[in-house]
Amino acid sequence: MKYLKQYDRGFVVEPTKKDFIKYDKNRLKLIYWRGGGLFVEITKSGEYIKRIPEMEILDWFLKIYSQARKTDILELLEYNLLGWITGLTEFQEFDQVLRLPFSKYSQGYDYQTHKYLFNEPIPSFEANYFSIFGELFLCGYVDFLAEEPKDVYLSDYKENIYESWKYFRDNFLYAGAFDRNVEDGNLTIGSTSWDTPQYWSQYNILVVRTEKGDKYFNEILAPRFYNKYKDLEVEIDNKGNIIRWIGEINR
Fold first, then answer.
1. Pairing status of strand 205-209 against strand 92-93
2. Per-residue pLDDT tens over the stretch 23-58
3. Axis crossing angle, helix 125-138 with helix 161-168, rounded to the nearest 10
4. Residue 93 zone, left/alpha/beta (φ > 0; ψ -120 to 50; rest)
5. Can you tell me the distance from the alpha carbon of 129 to that of 148, in angstroms, rounded to the nearest whole number?
6. At 193, is the secondary structure helix, strand, or coil?
7. Do residues 117 and 110 lie in contact, with contact meaning Cβ atoms separated by under 8 Å?
8. Alpha-carbon gap, residue 215 to 222, rounded angstroms
């Protein structure tokens, strides 16, 4: 196979002993160790604790870093996405890596209909997330696989890799095929091909982080992100209000 390699899962990389801390519910950090998940803490007993619901990651990031620029937000989304893609096995289903929306106030998701609004003329971070996905694919950091009798990677599907991405983006991401369900009557779990987008779903289109992407995450993105935010910490009360800021962002 093209990427015959077993990967460590980016956001559950075994921490070193110095990363284990005494759990304090009134202290909160964006990141606790290099390569770790966002707002994920490790206790001295080795237990992983998600301090913030995934749907509120962006909200809390902007709470603790109110001066964040769009470039900071896009970096956060890139780190989050590339970290989630890496799995204990070589490939992952899309429901394991596309955990949307990021915010309770998202403009890219209709909470009444539970539908994404990527085709609407409304800027949203979900749309930015897909753009980042495209950049990672075009840079060779991630690739996609259609489960068919003969495995075919998206990067090999068309002669022009950019045309492959647009075809995939329009028919899988923008069409919401990554979020199909049985109730809609359009969920396919079995094998499919790149030629039959009507049968694509979050279960038969897989994603992999390539060796090039693995190197980029571990040697460039994860160290840069950790060094930038490792000292940023806040104290919160029992209602989740920020009382004071501890430490700062390292530029």
1. antiparallel
2. 567 889 999 999 998 998 887 777 778 888 877 888
3. 150
4. beta
5. 27
6. coil
7. yes
8. 10
Calculated CA dihedral for residues 61, 53, 55, 83, nearest 10 degrees: 70
Spatial separation of the C-alpha atoms in residues 208 and 90, rounded to whole Å: 7
Structure tokens, 249: 């962002």
Tokens describing residue 178? 């990554």
Q: Tokens 């309770």 appear where? A: 104
> Nearest-CA neighbor of 79 among 228, 234, 246?
228
**Strand partners for 43:** 21
Peptide bond into 101 cis (omega under 30): yes
Distance CA 35, CA 24 (A): 21
Contact criterion met (CB below 8 Å) for 158 and 164: yes
What's the token pair of residue 152? 């075919």
CA-to-CA distance for 251 and 246, rounded, in angstroms? Answer: 16
> Tens digit of pLDDT for each residue in 191-210?
788 998 988 888 888 899 99
Amino acid identity at 246: I
SS3 235: strand
Alpha-helical (H) ranges within the chain are: 57-64, 70-85, 125-138, 154-157, 161-168, 211-216, 222-229
Question: Token match 């693995």: residue?
Answer: 214
**Predicted TM-score (pTM) of this structure:** 0.81
